[in-house]
Specification:
Length: 365
């Protein structure tokens, strides 16, 4: 099949079982995308032969291929003959047989143990025929990723897109306003933004930066980036604290592979009134703040429980009744973006002085 190849720039190659190098390449075809480990660096138009292997569940890396959608035309369970040894079992290549199903069965992957004692075949996968020219419409473009509440104000952040919802719980169902924020689009596989509600709006934290959102009486949302240093967030007594790594860890670096990452010199810092991050050096206070760190996916407001999970927002009332909130019934709100001027920041005065050229004098002077 024909495709366009685009290298994953900055990603170190992997090593094949035969010892040769493999470079990760993104392939884009007619209605599909995929990752391809190529035995040589390549870019542009290519023709490839192979088979697609679906990634089950959300991706985890920035380099994951773009999600592909289509209409399922056929579902078949793949079975293969099993070969037993003393300590393991393995599937024999070339012995595949297919069984038609109306939908993917719950047991779609196998331990390579036959379903019946008298059978030597075992399910090893599911083969799906996907029509890429007939793509069903999405039920909703909004996928909840984080949730926080204060009083009657509930805030929900999209998992990937820079979309923020405000739910006014004083009405039933809640009145929902959508705000499109001046933030980056993040990979959908891992939630990178947390949200922390307070009386006048909310904080949005991520590993890269911190944003402040204030909601006016007329519904206008003022958005401002208050720090270019990020981390996990905790709000205590109206103050925002940023938490980073307190100890060394091992992580996969896209350029270097598995590496050791040293801890931050000040793993707990407080955002002060001047929008500066001040270290919290008291060990007991820092430990107490770290103990409060958790994924922001549920909250309580006025004896009502709010929960964000499985792509839905649900309400649990005091009588125990659960209701799913229809997030598609929303109106568009107004966003006011406060953009900082780096040249006017006193902290940058010494740098600005070096890079700005003096205004030339008039020749007539």
């Amino acid at each position: 099949m024909q495709a366009t190849a685009r290298p994953i720039f900055g990603r170190m190659p992997g090593v094949h079982t035969d010892g040769s190098l493999r470079w990760l390449i993104s392939l884009f075809g007619d209605g599909w995308s995929a990752d391809w480990w190529s035995d040589c660096p390549i870019t542009g138009a290519v023709e490839v032969t192979g088979r697609f292997v679906a990634t089950l569940g959300p991706g985890r890396l920035d380099d994951d291929p773009v999600p592909v959608r289509g209409r399922v035309r056929r579902v078949r369970v793949v079975e293969q003959r099993i070969e037993r040894t003393d300590n393991s079992v393995s599937a024999i290549e070339g012995t595949e047989r297919f069984i038609e199903f109306e939908s993917t069965p719950q047991r779609f992957w196998s331990t390579l143990e036959p379903l019946w004692d008298d059978e030597s075949f075992s399910p090893t996968g599911v083969l799906v025929d996907l029509d890429l020219d007939d793509v069903p419409a999405l039920d909703s473009q909004f996928v909840p990723g984080a949730l926080s509440a204060e009083g009657t104000d509930v805030w929900v952040m999209d998992r990937s897109n820079p979309t923020l919802l405000h739910l006014d719980s004083r009405s039933s169902p809640p009145r929902i306003t959508e705000y499109l924020l001046p933030l980056t689009i993040e990979p959908s596989g891992s939630t990178r933004r947390d949200i922390h509600a307070d009386r006048s709006g909310c904080w949005i934290t991520s590993p890269y930066d911190v944003f402040r959102c204030d909601r006016a009486d007329d519904g206008t949302l003022t958005v401002e980036r208050v720090s270019t240093e990020g981390g996990a967030g905790v709000v205590d007594n109206g103050r925002l604290f940023i938490l980073r790594m307190p100890r060394p860890v091992m992580r996969i670096d896209r350029r270097r592979g598995l590496v050791r990452v040293e801890p931050d010199a000040h793993p707990v810092r407080m955002l002060d009134q001047n929008r500066r991050l001040i270290p919290v050096d008291d060990p007991e206070a820092a430990a107490a703040l770290r103990a409060r760190r958790f994924r922001v996916s549920q909250a309580r407001a006025d004896d009502t429980g709010w929960r964000c999970a499985d792509g839905q927002v649900t309400i649990r009332t005091p009588d125990g009744k659960r209701t799913t909130v229809d997030l598609d019934r929303r109106t568009c709100g107004t966003v006011s973006w406060v953009q900082p001027d780096p040249f006017a920041d006193p902290a940058n005065a010494d740098v600005v002085e070096r890079i700005l050229l003096p205004v030339p004098r008039s020749i007539t002077e």
